[in-house]
Amino acid sequence: MIYKFKGFTPVVHESSFVHPLAAVTGNVIIGKNCYIGPGTAIRGDWGQIILEDGVNVQENCTVHMFPGKSITLKESAHVGHGAIIHGANLGRNCLIGMNSVIMDDADIGDECIVGAMAFVKAESIIPKRSLVVGNPAKVVKEVSDDMIAWKTKGTQLYQQLPADCLESLKEVEPLRDVPKDLPTQEEAYKTLRETFKNK
């Protein structure tokens, strides 16, 4: 659902995919190859929200802010299921873990990884390449080359997902029985531990 609000119509690049069960409102600019999952709300009613190229905002996320603020999710930012971004800026190629909350005027540096269920307080400045966990969130170490390589590969899957959805996602009636020739899905990704266990 795409909504015009007070004269602002969202701008969505044709290569991006916004799920029909997501809501994008007002002054929102979505770049190339972005994925917006079902249940997500991106509300540019009180300020501008920019998603640069390759950003994904997964299922049931909220992106909003206090009145008069504008925010940017920089290129390849990856926002996990159920996260809330409220008036915060996200750096390039960062990962925001599932059900985490990033509060107003926080600034997440490039290539940071914020752990699942972390709470990043308002006005926090997180240096680039930081691993952040906890409530309240704290920097616990620097993100390694292996960790950011793993994160980048996962984000690349989401950058391919818009094209896959535009090509093949269709509303259908469910089958009532499992087909005898049901195919298996290819293995596209491994956990961080599996990826680097032989190094």
> DSSP helix count?
2
Structural class: alpha/beta
The CATH class name reads Mainly Beta
Q: How many distinct beta strands?
A: 20
**And the CATH topology?**
UDP N-Acetylglucosamine Acyltransferase, domain 1
Q: What is the alpha-carbon Rg in Å?
A: 17 Å
User: Share of helix among residues?
Assistant: 10-25%
Features:
single chain; 199 residues; UDP N-Acetylglucosamine Acyltransferase, domain 1; alpha/beta; 8-stranded mixed β-sheet; 2 helices
Mind explaining what this structure looks like?
- The protein has 199 residues and is an alpha/beta fold.
- It has one domain (2-142): UDP N-Acetylglucosamine Acyltransferase, domain 1, CATH 2.160.10.10.
- It is 15% helix and 32% strand.
- The chain contains two helices and 20 strands.
- The strands form three sheets. Strands 1, 2, 4, 6, 8, 9, 11, 14 and 17 form a nine-stranded parallel sheet that branches. The protein has an eight-stranded mixed sheet with strand order 3-5-7-10-13-16-19-20. Strands 12-15-18 form a three-stranded parallel sheet, with no helix packed on it.
- A hairpin with a 4-residue loop joins β19 (130-133) and β20.
- The protein starts with a strand and ends with a helix.
- The mean pLDDT is 95.
- This is Transferase hexapeptide repeat family protein.
- GO terms for molecular function: transferase activity.
- Keywords: Transferase.
Entry summary:
The chain is α/β, with parallel strands linked by helices.
Chain-wise SSE layout:
Elements: E1 2-3, E2 11-12, E3 17-18, E4 23-30, E5 35-36, E6 41-51, E7 56-57, E8 62-64, E9 71-73, E10 78-79, E11 84-86, E12 89-90, E13 95-96, E14 101-102, E15 107-108, E16 113-114, E17 119-120, E18 125-126, E19 130-133, E20 138-142, H1 145-168, H2 192-196
Parallel strand pairs: 1-4, 2-4, 3-5, 4-6, 5-7, 6-8, 6-9, 7-10, 8-11, 10-13, 11-14, 12-15, 13-16, 14-17, 15-18, 16-19
Antiparallel strand pairs: 19-20
